[in-house]
User: Fold this.
Amino acid sequence: APMPSSHNHRYHSGHLQLSRLPSRRTSDDEIDINEPVGIKKEKILKEPALWEYQFGLQNPDLTLPHGIVEGITPPEKYELTEEQIRTLEEDGVVHIKGVFDAEWVEYLRTATAHQVDNPHFWAFAGTASKLYDYIQRNVWQTNTAFANFYYHSAMGHVLAQCGRTSEIRVSTDLLMVNPNKGFKWHQDNQNGPIIPEEGLRFWITMDETPKDYGAPVYLQKSHFNNIVDSQAVFVDIEQEGLEEYRNKQLEFRTMPGDMLIWHPRTIHKVDGPKDGIWSIYRRVLGGTVAKAGSLYHDKRGSGGVLSDLGRHTLKDGDKLSSPYFPIVYPKFDKIEAKERNEGRVGRSPMDIVSKIGGLATKASGERFNSFFKVLGSR
Assistant:
């Protein structure tokens, strides 16, 4: 059974309502995102104590926006322009502004606040590493609020248009709060059990990006490069063959409700604050979705297996169709949702040991170590 949460919330002392923004909030709709001058910075979020981590399903029991009825109302839609879709195809990344209105942003902030205040065991490794103030993979599996967001919001419709596809499934996701060190130049290989051509990466932002750090930077058209190994994570942009990309940098200062969408091979980075202390929030729901026709690729023996640790029974080459990778466009599947809601979609220690065991080989170990190189920069 879940352990009761502490009465001493890990949020900054200015937080009385979990969905609220930091105590420097200047109005109901505005935050002062500039760092205070002459005042010692204090982390806005404290690391969970070991005994605060919980297990199993979690349900914040949130009311969905716009009168949506959970499990019944079809997903919303949001129309893109042909220019936006072509920008993604040509540049490898596109910034879609204002996809989600204030109601959806508040819903996501409240869901995130509840998650952080009731940390799940599957966030332990990432959060304890201090790479983020809080980070949890496949948060939709354990937190009903995020599953409902995927089932009912326009996210699936936006991504289906971007991929020119008739179907969108969630391959893997991440709830990320405040990347302490940032991530230097890299490409994504934690995309679940799919290959880059089958997927799209996404970010959904809940906060305004600070003016001095935290804005994602992408190398324009770098998804076309044939220099960087598809298994690599860390990328040395000074290496021979990347000359045509490294000086074409696109920076996106995202705002609440925006989406960033990019090709998994697009090279990018995010710089954190120089001292590693976030005194404001940078909350993002991100991940990878799979397009229609995607197959299951068993990635045992590579670092990519870390985003596929579920106890499903799919085999290499199978059609990617499973409650572990739920369809969200054109609409969610009630049977898949029922499997998740009844706790039959999850991870087991034995499966995890089996899947990550292959990382012991020299070749895969080198690729796995590449992942950790990403973590060393600002």
